[in-house]
Amino acid sequence: MKIIAAGSVTALAFTLQACVPAGGGGGLASTGESATPATISQADKAEGAKAHPQLVAEFGGKVTGPQAAYVENVGKTIAVQSGLGNARSDFTVTLLNSPVNNAFAIPGGYVYVTRQLTALMNNEAQLAAVLGHEVGHVAARHSAKRQEAASRNQLLGALGSILSGVLLGDNAFGRLGQQVFSQGSQLLTLKYSRSQELEADDLGIAYLKRAGYDPRAMANVLESLARQNALDAQLRGTTNQVPEWASTHPDPASRVRDALATAGSGAAGITNRDGFLANVDGLLYGDDPKQGIIDGSDFVHPVLRFAFEAPNGFYMVNGTRAVSINGQSGKAQFSSGDLSGGMDQYIKNVFAGLTDSNQTRITPASIERTTVNGIPAAYSVARVQTSNGQVDVTVFAYDFGGGKAYHFVTITQAGQAGVFNPMFKSFHRISAEQAGNIKPRVLDVVTVKPGDTVQSLARQMAYTNGQLERFLVLNALQADSTLQAGQKVKIIRY
């Protein structure tokens, strides 16, 4: 979490299962060779150039150096296959410093992939497949159709203006998490249809073939994403392997089958596994300490020097602007803002950004003062009537000094706000020594030695839970896979 502003999250998106809307511009509308490509229009270039800085900022900034240059080269190679641009120079490809699995493309030839998703891949063809899928959304003009649907449903625009509050509507308990939490933007990610996702898969496969890559890479990376979803659910202690907001999308298993069928039984081509692994070796993995780190139930920010603990049974997701805390009995968001006008006014300002199902602003009845671990704090609870019953919305804020405040916004069923009390009480400052002990995780490509097994290598993973499962998914291996001496595998280390 890179603290920027209180209560604002940009509507962006999740990869492959649900992608950021891509705009305008023509291109190959189908995989048929008869489709007529169109160049990127000046209007699209202007729109993309305007949105680009915002998107980069939302996803933690861009990675620079040799790793980013490699991704840029692969991205331009696959993007130019779409016919949207006349040359590689027509595209801007960015490796984003984000710990979530994301990839997207926007009008004007702008293509993005996060370092986390890149680390999940196992060869260059898979990287090209992911970026090709996103460009496929642009080529098929899916966002134009999606924007029309969004307008009909009174949703925000496709490149997603800032969400100013929480809509507590018919599905109030779940909607807070949908619209405010989890890396920004699951609100709009529901609107790519099943057919659009499959069409983008097909277009990506066509681009792979034209570029000389193994077209089976699309199915391979979809399978890895499905396994990662399942592992995430397992580690969180939930049974839902597909996020609720992605429920309209084709199930991963069927997409894998369809992608393999589209690739063809005799498919072949370049994968460049060794080259890919050499270029991603040392890539930052998971949270960047500059944005805070989630370690089990703890969130620690070594730069801003604070920490807190999520309640038992809850899991956290670290976004660029906020941290979301999710569980069966409630949802919460942790963010910050400038403190001017005192704590009472700060809490009123946070509530002012929240609206109920009738777009009526939520007003707290009273504001209470307290102290948490030596930090001045204040809080207020507002009860809101929804069509599904009453819910309690709580704002708990801390005066951190220097004109800076931090706060939680939580939502629970009426009378259950206390489930977050342990979290509220856990917020505390950390010392310079404690901050200095926070180390990032990185991806380390190693060569298998004689006698190494998946089990022995998995024990080197920098996690206290799920070491074997994480290792297997990261390397697209099975528990009974036999490793060969000289083989390259990925391990996550501190």
TrEMBL record:
Q: Which Pfam families match?
A: LysM, Peptidase_M48
Q: Does the keyword Signal apply?
A: yes
Cofactor(s), by name: Zn(2+)
Q: Which GO terms describe its biological process?
A: proteolysis involved in protein catabolic process
Protein name per Swiss-Prot or TrEMBL: Peptidase M48 Ste24p
Q: Which Gene3D superfamilies match?
A: LysM domain, Metalloproteases ('zincins'), catalytic domain
The entry's keywords: Hydrolase, Metal-binding, Metalloprotease, Protease, Signal, Zinc
Q: Where is the signal peptide?
A: 1-18
LysM domain location is: 444-491
Q: Which GO MF term does the entry hold, naming one?
A: metal ion binding
Highest taxon listed in the record's lineage: Bacteria
**Record's Gene Ontology CC terms?**
membrane
